[in-house]
Amino acid sequence: MNETRRDRDAEGRARNARPRDGLGRPLPYGTPGVERQPEGVVRTPAETLREAQRLLDAGMPFHAHEVFEDAWKSGPEDERELWRGLAQLAVGLTHSARGNTAGGARLLRRGAGALAPFTGPGRHGIAVFGLCDWARELAGRVESGPTVDAAAEAPRLRA
To answer: pTM of the entire structure?
Structure first.
């Protein structure tokens, strides 16, 4: 990479090509990193939840957020806030694991708030009540405690 030019994707859009670690932090060029999630993948809700859970369990909530973001952008209008809320939970866990306690707690609470309207009959088997409780509890611990381990704190997405 020529340091005076920006990285570009195949369509010419600016896109940072630096490798990333499991929490999505950029690494120096040439350093082995974690493979990125492909963007714009249309999955069924079950596939989305399965892939996101795999990534969360592996301690890679940043990458799970990207899976949720695809669902948020490609899913039906009446479910966009559901997927956006799940993406916010994953980003909140990411920030919490990176040591950004204020940002992590704020995003965890924001995600729980976005999920709250979906606490009726569960869509796609998502454990909305449990996720909201998990996010609020973790937000409280993050604000007053040490950096969390993303894999150890991974939530269960389905009931």
So the answer is: 0.86
